[in-house]
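User: Structure please.
Assistant: Input sequence and predicted structure:
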Amino acid sequence: MRTWSVRLIVVVILAGLGFWGSRVWFPGPEEVIRKRLSELARTASFSGSEGTLVKLAGAQALAAFCTPDVEITVDIPGHFRQTFSGQDELVQAALGARRAAGGLNVQFFDIIVTVAPDRNSAVADLTAEGRVRGEKDFYVQELKFMLRKVEGKWLIFRVETVKTLSLGRPDVLPATDYGVRQGFARTYGWKELPSPRELLEYGERWRPHRSTAAWYFWRALELPDGF
């Protein structure tokens, strides 16, 4: 009886090691995509001390994560919606940013990957945070990445800004969204719009329902004056 118990324990241990090894050596597409997007964030980050050739190499490295016909549509916080079509436009935009900014740190959080049944395409929803060197505030946006598998490698073919509530995620506060900031100021009687940092700090009290709070701020703008 004792011999069989020992054998059973050994089998269980070996099975566990086999499962762990398969996850490490043969990760699923979701894990591969998360890792690749984390690499993209590191590649998009840069210091202000880069030379001309390093700037160019960094911009070209970003294009390598994308298909030749990639289309990227993002809302520039406090400015306008911008669309880049193709790798060449992406390289030029990235190079311009590296020349204009003194440095940038990009991080991706809450990466949720959904792989299609054919296992050759996927969608990744995430929160992107950008910190420009020398600026007090940081920028936060919800982004949707669409990827396809090309010759065994996951490449991005479309990126777009999305509204938080469309993701079905209950605890995300889009602190750079102009409408949310306006709604907050109107609700709480602020004369000036809150900075993204102020909104995030104030929003800690709404966890874990910050997406609902954002929805109410958007709707607050529809109320008549003096309500």
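The longest strand covers residues 103-115.
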